[in-house]
Amino acid sequence: MVRGISVDKESFPIAGTFTISRGSKTEAEVVTCTISEGGHAGRGECVPYRRYGETLEGVVAAIEAMRSAVEGGIDRDELLAAMPAGAARNAIDCALWDLEAKATGVAVFERLRLAPRALETAYTLSLGSAESMAAQARENAARPLLKVKIGGGDGDIERIRAVRQAAPASRLILDANEGWTDETVAANLAAAAELGVALVEQPLPAGRDGILATIAHPVPICADESVHAAKDLPALKGLYDAVNIKLDKAGGLTEALKLRDEARRLGFGVMVGCMVGTSLAMAPAVLLAQDADFVDLDGPLLLARDRVPGLAYKGSLVSSPERGLWG
User: Fold this and answer.
1) What is the pTM of this model?
2) Which domain holds residue 275?
3) Does one domain contain both 127 and 240?
4) Is residue 186 a contact partner of residue 157, using CB atoms and an 8 Å limit?
């Protein structure tokens, strides 16, 4: 049977504006890879990671460069060796998982020996003034887990305090997106502990986070930009308490599963996160996250329009994907 591959660029509007310490955006730009064989088609979606120099055009070109290998029947393990971690490999890898499920009739959750359940996902509050973030928190105070984007220089403690006052019953994850400094990290962590924060994500820039080995961790600290693949984990011991696994960083579900299992073996907590994308990007991550300590798969909740069919969200609970979507 002849295997084919196609690549598409798509854009989905965000409901409002999504802001982190590195900037703002009003749409989710994604790349979708479709691999077809024998009357079946598998899809994978990725979001180019601008933090690492990825662009829509560059990711499309990287996928196109693999055309002959994909059409020649490359498998997922061979793909790991043939491409670096990143968004392009993620799209191909997830498309291969989906194609395999469609062609064999064996769902991905069955292949992974899972009995999937609905998961409680965080809901993200964009970075803004303390007042605007309090307003976001108040609107979502019924959600059990909120992810709070901070790292905007001065005023982070005021932002955290304002969110806590507006959503007193919610558990909080703080995501600084590398925005704190050696001079501010200890005081900010102490304030986070005082305000009952459950987790602090990537407070310092990747590669400039050595001070985390020498200061107290009154709140568990989670690596995000500092971890991509399983090989990164040994260097993070003593710096971080948990790792955030994202398919676009790991380069697909195949590597992400290896990363999760190795993280558990080494004693790290596990968070499964996402870029702002559609339900197609979240679907494999929902299966990856079945035993995670923290789940942050709210991408579709931040969009004004999702794919149809999409994942089923009920409040902050997200169900596993239906076969018509992925897997």
Assistant:
1) 0.95
2) 119-318
3) yes
4) no
Does 48 sit behind a cis peptide bond, omega within 30 degrees of 0 on the bond before it? Answer: no
For residue 11, give the DSSP letter.
Answer: E
Q: Which of 9, 25, 102, 149 is catalytic?
A: 149
Amino acid (one-letter) located at 82: A
The pLDDT score that the predictor gives to residue 19 is: 65
Angstrom distance (rounded) from CA 135 to CA 5: 45
- Name the domain count of the chain: 2
Buried b (16+ CB within 10 A) or exposed e, 172-194: bbbbbbbbbeeebbbebbebbee
Catalytic one of 102, 147, 246, 249:
246
End-to-end Cα, the chain, rounded Å: 21
The CATH number linked to 256 is 3.20.20.120
How would residue 151 be classed by pLDDT, with cut points 50, 70 and 90?
A: confident
User: Catalytic: 314?
Assistant: no
Q: Which of 61, 84, 106 is the last residue of a domain?
A: 106
The answer to whether residue 147 is catalytic is: no
